[in-house]
Write a structure and sequence with these properties.
Helix content is 49%, strand content 15%. With 444 residues, it is an alpha/beta fold. The strands form three sheets. It has a five-stranded mixed beta sheet. Strands 7-6-11-12-13 form a five-stranded parallel beta sheet, sandwiched between helices. Strand 12, helix 14 and strand 13 form a beta-alpha-beta unit. The radius of gyration is 21 Å and the shape is globular. The two termini are 26 Å apart. Bound molecules: NADPH dihydro-nicotinamide-adenine-dinucleotide phosphate and (2Z)-2-iminopentanedioic acid. The site of (2Z)-2-iminopentanedioic acid has 11 residues, from strand 3 and helix 16.
């Protein structure tokens, strides 16, 4: 049995109740086969694959808080500090009722390779809670965030572990958590990113994941003699990533015709009205039915369905495993040329393979959505030097990072005879840097 297969068996056995984690590890290790085979003796002797698939530590804790009726509620908090070979642990905090240890581990594992691809010094981590922010008052959100940070503050720090936003965690939640950290520790430090602009946040961080996704997609299209201008784009999700991906795609001259949330989706033949979408989702925190009610050209449908709309480019920006094999078949049948992931692991392994085998240019989230965490690392740099850069400066750096990521993953795939396999290219390029650092630092 090959070293990769041995470790895959081990990971499946040790983490049997964590399907998303097994899925993420399977995808990465399978695509690393050529690199591992070329260095099998060295990697095996140093247990590189066993170490990179086992978190440094995984923290789970009780989060008690009081709701508006005076009732005590209890949620479960998580922080998985996966790998800090190239920098402090870095990754978001997900607040969603579906959160469990396996989901946080899959996200933390992916973050190792994504963060490496940014070329900036950040390791991999992720956290969150099964807390559901939907329908909660601002006071309830604050009570939860303060309790969550009261425990989390023991394990993080500007040079240790720097959390940020993810599903359900935006500027409001980061603000409450930052306030509590400061109160407990008595230090004003860049312990979180995605902060408000008046207390250490970076311009362009809000836009960064969606904008970065489009900068990478643009470079990919350009290198294939195509452009985004005039293309029809289908986007899923209606949160931070989806909104700013839609905005940038429109600025680049594309027509974005869909968005979705956990209850339904919109088809808007005239193109999504971003200002209205922001009003519904960022200000009112309402359902997409309100978008449809305010926009005559929009159709609202219950359930899922954006991938059945004919498009040139598809950008999944909601959550994991939202683009399935039947969706991949529909996209190919409709002539879709390009799929770039704004979300983390939105496409299942069989759907990914189907798209790749049918000539669709497919870039996975580790590369395509790295603009968010890259800009978080730029926020850390600004906090360290106690300066704030202009929007233009941050945005220019982000563009440069995304263009470089595209070329790095393209080159890595070519080096191993897999031209056009950007999934393998991203995993290989991300892995190489982390492994070099792990080997240099000895057994730890
Ligand atoms: P938000 O909470 O802002 O938005 C999430 C969107 O996805 C919402 O429209 C939400 O619908 C929908 N969604 C969430 N869970 C589900 C589900 N189980 N089924 C269907 N729809 C769902 O999160 P973000 O936009 O920040 O994150 C979206 C994705 O991008 C995630 O995979 C995240 O990990 C990834 N990502 C985020 C980055 C960031 O900087 N924010 C950086 C890189 C990746 P509803 O409103 O109904 O809940
Ligand atoms: O998945 C991700 O990369 C994020 N949620 C952003 C993490 C960060 O630290 O900015």
């Amino acid at each position: 049995m090959s070293y990769v297969d041995e470790v895959l068996e081990l990971v499946k056995k040790k983490n049997a109740s964590e399907p998303e984690f097994i899925q993420a590890v399977t995808e990465v290790l399978n695509s690393l086969r050529p690199v591992v085979e070329a260095n099998e003796e060295l990697y095996k002797k140093n247990a590189i694959l066993e170490r990179i698939t086992e978190p440094d530590r995984q923290l789970m804790f009780r989060v008690p808080w009081v709701d508006d009726k005076g009732q005590v509620q209890v949620n479960r908090g998580f922080r998985v500090q996966f790998n800090n070979a190239i920098g402090p642990y870095k990754g978001g905090l997900r607040l969603h009722p579906s959160v469990n240890l396996g989901i946080i581990k899959f996200l933390g594992f992916e973050q190792i390779f994504k963060n490496s691809l940014t070329s900036l010094p950040i390791g991999g981590g992720k956290g969150g809670s099964d807390f559901d922010p939907k329908g909660k008052s601002d006071r309830e959100i604050m009570a939860f965030c303060q309790s969550f940070m009261t425990e989390l503050s023991k394990y993080i720090g500007a040079d240790v572990d720097v959390p940020a936003g993810d599903i359900g965690t935006g500027a409001r939640e980061i603000g409450f958590m930052f306030g509590q950290y400061k109160r407990i520790k008595g230090t004003f430090e860049g312990v979180l990113t995605g902060k408000g602009l008046t207390y250490g946040g970076s311009l362009a961080r809000t836009e960064a994941t969606g904008y970065g996704l489009l900068y990478l997609t643009q470079e990919l299209m350009k290198c294939h003699g195509e452009s985004i201008e005039g293309k029809t784009v289908v986007v899923s999700g209606a949160g931070n990533v989806a909104i700013y991906a839609t905005q940038k795609a429109q600025q680049m001259g594309a027509k974005v015709v869909t968005c979705s949330d956990s209850t339904g989706w919109i088809y808007d033949a005239e193109g999504i009205d971003v200002a209205l979408l922001k009003e519904v989702k960022e200000v009112k925190r309402a359902r997409l039915t309100e978008y449809a009610a305010a926009r005559p050209s929009a159709e609202y449908h219950e359930g899922r369905g954006v991938w059945q709309i004919k498009c040139d480019i598809a950008l999944p920006c909601a959550t994991q495993n939202e683009l399935l094999i039947e969706d991949a078949k529909q996209l190919v049948a409709n002539g879709c040329k390009c799929v770039c992931e704004g979300a983390n692991m939105p496409t299942t392994i069989d759907a990914t393979e189907y798209l790749q085998q049918n000539g669709v240019w497919f870039v996975g989230g580790k590369a395509a959505n790295a603009g968010g965490v890259a800009t978080s690392a730029l926020e850390m740099s600004q906090n360290s030097e106690r300066l704030s850069w202009s929007f233009e400066e941050v945005d220019a750096k982000l563009q440069n990072i995304m263009v470089n990521i595209y070329h790095n993953i393209d080159d890595a795939a070519k080096r191993y005879g897999m031209e056009g396999n950007y999934v393998a290219g991203a995993n290989i390029a991300g892995f190489e840097k982390v492994v070099n650092a792990m080997l240099a630092q000895g057994v730890c």
